[in-house]
Specification:
Radius of gyration: 25 Å
Oligomer: single chain
Number of strands: 0
Helix content: over 70%
Strand content: under 5%
Amino acid sequence: MPYVTEVPLPAAGPRWRTAAARLVTGSVNVAAGLILPLLLLALWQYAVEQHWLAEQILPPPALVWQSLLELWDSGDLTANLAISLQRLGWSLLIGGGAGFVLGVVMGVSRTVQAYVYPSFQLVAQFPVIGWVPLLIIFAGIGEALKVAAIAIAVVVPVAVNTFDAIRSIPRSLLEVGAVYRFTFGQTVRRLVLPAASSGIFSGLRQGVMQAWLTLVFVELLASSEGIGYLMVWGRQLLQLDIVVVGMLVIGAVGVALDRLLAWGEARLHGWQRRAY
């Protein structure tokens, strides 16, 4: 019978200790992050009990929580939030796609850069609120106005970051494609996109956050649906608990979007390393 050499398995102790250390560190970070919100909540409750402001101006936390549950059970909160997220998705698709194409074209072609980039820099200085009167003239105050305004807020960060990322690619890296005789598609897929992906994703991340903030502003300004309209509706009824619910939902969704994009960026770095 042939002699079989047993290969010792790696000890699981260090791996468990590393996982435990990460768990402890994460728990400490979460606890530290909850200190300030809990202090603000305690101050809020104390201000209500001491009647620093009238209940119509500063609703108690219990009333806000009750309003949140009622709006959730009735479907008003989820329906308006779904409408806002749908607007966000269309705006990101239109504005992000246009910004990506514009950034790639300006980054690849020096001729396009020479003719387009100076004008783009000038237009990019206009705030989104400055576009609203012009958009109202051409698009009215319907859904097209909201999507167009949010899309404009997305185009600028995506285009600028894509352009900067492509222009910062070292020439020596592009020469690798010529040495290996890559096709244009292979050069873009194997060299350009991996090298510029961090900058492109950074622009997308900025665009998403700008889009979410602009969405709330546009819905507060002119809308009959959406999470911003829900806040306007609560203000008109002098029910500031509904306004606070809207503020909390906006903040929670913004944090969720940022965490989701951070997770995507981490996965992107792994793909970037494998692409080379």
